[in-house]
Amino acid sequence: MELKIGDKIEMKKPHPCGSKVFTLLRLGMDFKIRCEGCGREVMVSRKKIEKNIKKVID
Predict the structure, then answer these.
(1) Can you tell me the distance from the alpha carbon of 17 to that of 30, in angstroms, rounded to the nearest whole number?
(2) DSSP structure string for 4-43
(3) Could you give the number of structural domains in the chain?
(4) 50 lies in a domain?
(5) pLDDT digits (tens, 9 = 90+) for 24-56
(6) Domain range spanning residue 49?
């Protein structure tokens, strides 16, 4: 999967605030993502992110 910093991704499950759109801030073994709804930043493992991405928004 081709991902780069700054991409917006839509996840299958929403964040507790209700938003499904996140921005990628850091790539590697763990991804750092920011929720577009509330602005919270979360570190998530690569395996979990790749499993839960619905689509990449350009």
Answers:
(1) 22
(2) -TT-EEEESS--TTS--EEEEEE-SSEEEEEETTT--EEE
(3) 1
(4) yes
(5) 999 999 999 999 999 999 999 999 999 999 999
(6) 8-57
